[in-house]
Fold:
Amino acid sequence: MASEPKILLVGCGGIGGITAAQLARAGGDVTVVTGNPEISRAIATHGVRIRDLDGKEWSQRLSQTAVKASDLFSHGRYDLCMVATKLTTLGEVLEDVRPLLSDGAPIVCMQNGLPESHAASIVGADPVVGCVVGFGATLVEPGFSQRTSPGGFQVGRLLPRTNDVELIRLADLLGRAIPTKIVDDLSGVRWSKLAINCATSTLGAIGGDTLGRLLSHRFVRRLVLEVWRELCAVADCEGVRLAKVAGTIDITKLALSDDDKRHSLGSLPLFLKHSILLGIGLKFRRMRSSMAVAIERGRKPEIDWLNGEIVRRGAQHGVSTPLNRELVTLVHDLVAKRTKPGLETLYGVYLRLTNGQLGTTMSAAPPVLQRADDANTSLRIEPR
Structure:
């Protein structure tokens, strides 16, 4: 990677917009591919507009803005590619940008879920770098991103390298704009964030309310713990030890255990688990599920790459994941308008779970991921 690299960032939603603006503000040569003419026009007219946590607003011009990667063929090669789209379009995005990249250019995956293995299956493992995003953001309107929570980046590789100079340079470059930390155990960090998303984002979409209100209900907290129990069982088979969230929350210990099921509701360990979830709900009481927002805006939710990932990998290891499978089905029902979000819908899941109606056996055919072209639809870059 060059000392002052040309940066190509694909996807300019909440996360992508803040990343592009911060990098350019720190002196970076940043070009964005938006996949959305409205976003491109807004950035060309006003620059990327940002609202910080303190409410302060500012804007930042970029080197170049394009709707499609093919619009940039005459602008030379790029030394670094950062992909801030939804995971649902990762494959198509990588195929589109490959001709624009210099040999060996790092490809940084900023999505939720477990994107690195999917990216490696397309471009090979060598250029792929994982970037776990620790801050929250939303797209207020085209070209206008708002930060919703503090945090930075954690970067690493699935297979760490000794004296990884390229990764150190990348972390230094990103760190000029946004706090960035190199992690040796990328898988542990990825799976911890996957656990958070599989619980809060998915249950938030089905429950149709803020995190604070949902976690005030004991049955919702029980669903969170059960989602984590299934996820941790799969992670164990994958040889992954979940990293602590924010350095303190150990999801492996929070997940529902067999002892929790045997003991009374008043048992101390279970009481503490519920207390911790109540505290999380209080801290993030106004937070809404990004999956709920995606569904409301007519976008394809990432459910197949979140809870669906757990179901698929569980099936590969012979681990039953009936609750995660049920949640995948319900989110698809929400999209198809076969059901409505609400506490009643979530409570129905809880009743089926506690009555043993979700089953403990796996379907022979776990959910299959569909590429956009499988459905005869044109590629849409869904920004983060």
